[in-house]
Amino acid sequence: MMMSTDFASIAPPLASLATGVVSAALYGRKRKWINALLAGVAGVALALMVADLRLPAAGAGALAVDTGSAGQLSDADRLAIPRAAAIALTGDGLREAEWRDLPARPVQWKPAAADLLWLDFPRTMSLGRIFTLTVRRAPAQAGWRLQLLAENKQVLADSGAAATSAPGASETTAVATANAVAAATAIAVSGAAKATTATGAPVATAAPGRGVTTAAAGNVAPVPQLSVQWLPPVAENMVLQARLLDAAGKIVAQGPIPLQVKDALPLQIQGRFDAPSFDARALNQLLADGSAIVDWSVTLGKAIARSETARAPLTAPNAMFVDAAYVEHLSPSARAALLAQTGQGVPMVILGGNAADASLWQRELGLSLRQQSPTTEKEDVRQFSVAGVALSMPPATLNPADNVGAPWSVLARDGKKQPWLWQRDLRQGRVIWIGVSDWHRYAISAPQALTLWWQGAMDQIALASVQKAGWQLPDAMPLPGLRSELCAQGAKAGTTLQVEGAAELRLQSRADKADAICTALWPQKSGWMKFTSAGVAEPGLEYVYAAQDWPAWQRALRRDATAQYAARALPVSVGVGAGVNSESASEPASRPLPVAPFAVLFALCMLGLWWREQRQPAA
Which whole number is the average pLDDT over 78-86? Predict the structure, then answer.
C-alpha cells in the first residue's frame, strides 16, 4: 500500500483521524463506550476515505521480458508491459522508437559485457565539405585501425596504427584529399553538415584515392575512438564502406556508410571596397569558384570603380563584406544607413587590414583598436593548420585587444590561441572584424587549404542559406521490419507522404518536435528508400541497412535507447525526456484503494451514533 507524503495530501486524513479520536475520548469520559467505539471507527473510515492510498497494480511484480540478440519484443510482452509494475529485462533491449510507444516502467536490467561500436557521420552534406567518420569502441582496444573504402573497395582514408598513438591520446585523425580541385574550391553555406577541418595534428596529404596515416610516436595504449576524413569529389548518392582492423590486420567489423552529397546552395554576398587589394581579389575569386551570387564593387581611383553585377537578385544575402577604408570614407549619413542595414540582420564583415582611424571605430561601434607593436611582429603572426598545410597570416595594423570588452567578443582564435576574429551584436545583425591579412599568398601555393580556411570562417560569420522545407531522418540506423520514423520540416500537419513500395502515410505533429511533422513506418527491404511529399519540393532518400549490418552498432543503439527508457521511470525524469508521452510516463504501476467500503462504514457509524443519541434522553 502506497501513500503520498506531501503535507497537502496527508493533512485531510490526519484531521479526520484526529476528529474521530477526540470524539471517542469525549464519549469515553461519559462512559458511553459503544458511542466512543462508533466515533473512533467513523474517524478511521473517514481518514481512509479521503487519503490517496494506492495498491500495487493487478499482477504486480517484475514482468520478465527477453528481447534476445535481435531486439525483438513478443506481442504478449507488448500487451503485458502496461499492466506490469516493473520490467525484468534480459538482452540488449529495443530501439528508441519502439520504447517510445510503451508506458514508462521501472527496469531491472544488467547488460552483459559485449563489444560495442558507435558510428558518427553526416548522412547528407554539401559538395565542398569534408566528410568525417568517427568510430567509438567499447571497450577500448590497442592497435586497431579504421579505414574508409570507396564503392569499388579502394581505400580512401586510413587512420593508421592506433597502437603508436601518444600516451593519453584518445583519437587518431586521418585526412585524404580528393582529386577534384573544383570541388575543393567551392565555398558554400547550407543547412547540411558543416565541413570539418583538421587542426593541431600532424596530417600528410596523399595522392588521389590514397589513405593518409597520422600517428605520433609513443607507447602502445588502448584507443577508444578513431576518425577519418575525406573530401567527396562529386555530388551523388554513394554507399561507402568502413572497415575496422585489429593490431594484426584482421578485419574486426565492416559495413556500409551511406552518404548523400548534394550541390551546395550558392552564397549571396555583397562586397564594397574603397581600395583595391590582393586579399579582396582572392576572396572574390574563391566566391566565384564556389558559384556564389556576388554583388561586388571596388573603388580603383577618385572616379573609377570596378563593379560586378550579381547574376541573380540577392533575395536573402548571407553577408556583406567591406574593407575598413570603405567605412571610414563614408559620409556620416551613408555610414548610418550602412549600420541600419546591418541592424536588420545581414552580418557586416570588415576586413581590417587598411584601418587607419581608430577614433571612428570607437565612436561608431564601440571598438577599441590598438596599434600593432613592431617589437612583437613575428610573435603576433597568426598560425593555422588546415588539412596538414600550415598557413601564416600577419595581423592587421590596427586590431582589437585580446581581452576586448563588451559589446565585442572574440569569435575565433588561431593554433596559438591568438584571436583573429571579433564580433558584436547590432540589433538583429552582427558586425565581424577580420584581423588578419595576406591570405592571397596561398591562392596559388595552397588553394585547397585556403578554401577550407575560408569555409570555416564562413561557417562562423555568414548566415545560413534559407531552406524553407526539408527532410529530417531521426533514425540513426533504419532496419527492415523494425519501426522507424521520417520527419519533414516546413510542411503542414496532415500532409501525405508517399514511400516507394509502401502504402501512403500521413505526417502528423509531435510534441517533442516543434518545427517538424513526423510519421512512423516499417521499411520492407534494405537499400535506398525514396519518398516524396507535397509539402517538400525535393524528394527524400534514406538508406535502410540490412539486418546483418553492423551488429555491434545495433547492439549499442539498443542499449542506449533502453537506458533512456529506464530513466523515464525515475521520479526526476518522468515526462521530461524527449519523445516521452507525459500521460503514460506519469502513470504509476498501481491502482487506487477502493473508497466505497469506507464510505458505507462511515455512514453506518454516523447513523448508529445518531440513533443512539435519539434513544438516550439528555442528562
Answer: 85
Q: Are strands 348-351 and 470-472 parallel, antiparallel or unpaired?
A: unpaired
Cell 502528423 belongs to residue: 508
Please work out, in degrees rounded to the nearest 5, the angle formed at the alpha carbon of residue 345 by the alpha carbons of 342 and 348: 40
Grid cell locating 200: 593541431
Q: What is the distance in angstroms between the CA of the first residue and the CA of the last residue of the chain?
A: 45
The confidence band for 133, taking pLDDT boundaries of 50, 70 and 90, is very high
The residues that bridge with 319 in the sheet, in sequence order, are 269
- In the predicted model, what is the mean pLDDT of residues 231-258? 93
Q: Measure the CA–CA gap between 545 and 482, rounded to whole angstroms.
A: 11
**Neighbouring-strand partners of residue 171:** 225
CA distance 40 to 16: 10
CB-based contact 380:396 (threshold 8 Å): no
Give the DSSP letter of residue 204: -
Spatial neighbors of 283 by CB under 8 A, at least 6 apart, are 271, 321, 454
Q: 180 falls in which pLDDT band (50, 70, 90)?
A: very low
Q: What pLDDT does residue 5 have?
A: 64
Q: Which amino acid is at 487?
A: C
Cα–Cα separations (whole angstroms), residue 314 to 268, 271, 298, 308, 580: 6, 12, 18, 13, 43
Alpha carbons within 13 A on the beta-carbon side of 143: 8
In 3D space, the residue among 480, 618, 469, 437 whose CA is nearest the CA of residue 534 turns out to be 469
Give pLDDT, residue 598. Answer: 83
Cα–Cα distances (Å) from 615 to 370, 570, 609, 612, in that order, read: 104, 57, 10, 5
CA distance 348 to 341: 9
Instruction: Characterize 133-160 residue by residue with b for buried, 16 or more Cβ atoms within 10 angstroms of its Cβ, and e for exposed.
Output: bbbbbeeebebbbbbbbeeeeebbbbbb
Burial 204-236 (b: 16+ CB within 10 A, else e): eebeebebbbbbeeeeebebebbbbbbbbbeee
More confident residue, 300 or 535: 300
Is 275 in contact with 291 (CB distance < 8 Å)? no
Rounded distance, CA 580 to CA 231, Å?
Answer: 39
Q: What is the dihedral of CA 601, 603, 605, 608, to 10 degrees?
A: -140
Task: Spell out the residues 6+ positions from residue 616 whose beta carbon is closer than 8 angstroms to its own.
Answer: none
Helix, strand, or coil (residue 294): strand
Residue 565 or residue 221, greater confidence: 565
Residue whose C-alpha is closest to residue 346's, from 448, 246, 442, 272: 272
Q: Cα dihedral angle (148, 152, 154, 155), rounded to 10 degrees?
A: 0
Q: What is the pTM of this model?
A: 0.67
The three-state (H, E, C) secondary structure of 374-431, written as one string = HHHCCCCCEEEEECCEEEEECECCEEECCCCCCCCEEEEECCCCCEEEEEEEECCEEE
> Within 10 Å of residue 488's Cβ, how many Cβ atoms?
23
**DSSP assignments along 443-461, one per residue:** HHHSHHHHHHHHHHHHHHH
Is the Cβ–Cβ distance between 428 and 343 less than 8 Å? yes
How far is it, in rounded angstroms, from Cα 320 to Cα 307? 15
Which residues, listed in sequence order, are joined to residue 54 by a DSSP beta bridge?
Answer: 2, 592
214 — pLDDT class (breaks 50, 70, 90): very low
